[in-house]
Amino acid sequence: MRADLIHCNEIYPNPYAVRAAASVAAPAGSPCEGRPIPVITHVRLDMKEGMIRKYDLALADRIVVPSEALGHEFDEWEDKAQRVRVIYNGVNLQEYCRTRTPAAARLQIGVPPDGPLLAAIGQVGPRKGGDVILDAFERLAANHPTLRLMFVGDPHRGQEPFAEELKTRAARPPLAGRVHFFPCTEAVAEVERLCREIAREFPQAIFFIGKVIFQTEKWYHRFLH
Between β-strands 117-121 and 148-152, what pairing exists: parallel, antiparallel or unpaired? Predict the structure, then answer.
């Protein structure tokens, strides 16, 4: 097996990756031949104080961040210009072309066809501010009787009580019947498609899939971590 580089999709595996790569030379024919395998680490979220040191990010060859603001976390690095790159999160707009009318979409998910609909899409937990969103919606709802809110997402492990409290609160007046909760959609098909696409260009690639969120439990979940 050969590897031209190691890509860490988040900061947490970086300490293991930089240590593994330090003792393995890039294979013959690689752009990095004769040198240790380079490690590129994606920093996706704002970091607390000390996390650059805690996760040995200074040992990574390159750091990728999705915004200029997050890039400022590395302003103290003398070689920041060479080692830190901003690559904005991309969206394939063709995948989101509208294939149904708004009325049909509302009918499909069981939301009344009239009135404004607000959507909170993402993890249902304190970090995403689900309680703050519900507070704001309650204030708006008092003056907008047809306004509705939907949460699309699932709680992270250990945050199920938080999500249940949101649902309990949303089921009570004056919000009863106006707040809807939907789980994340099945992700396996999309993950498999992306893996196959990458494998066409890098046939010896190995994929480690972590924290994939599924709507229902499947027998193959344990094989994807």
Answer: parallel
Residue type, 210: G
214 pLDDT more than 90:
no
Given a contact cutoff of 8 angstroms between Cβ atoms, the answer to whether 151 and 179 are in contact is: yes
Distance (Å, whole) CA 141 – CA 1: 59
Q: What is the mean pLDDT of the chain?
A: 82
Separation in Å, CA 8 to CA 18, 101, 113, 209: 10, 40, 44, 12
Tokens at 126, concatenated: 């304190």
pLDDT in tens, 12-54: 999 999 998 887 777 777 777 777 788 999 998 888 889 999 9
In the structure encoding, which two tokens stand for residue 100, read together? 């149904």
Amino acid at position 4, single letter: D
Task: Answer for the pair 78, 56: CB distance below 8 angstroms, yes or no.
Answer: no
What tokens does 221 get? 């979940």
Whole-number Å distance between alpha carbons of 172 and 160: 19
Question: Which residue type, as a one-letter code, is found at position 119?
Answer: A
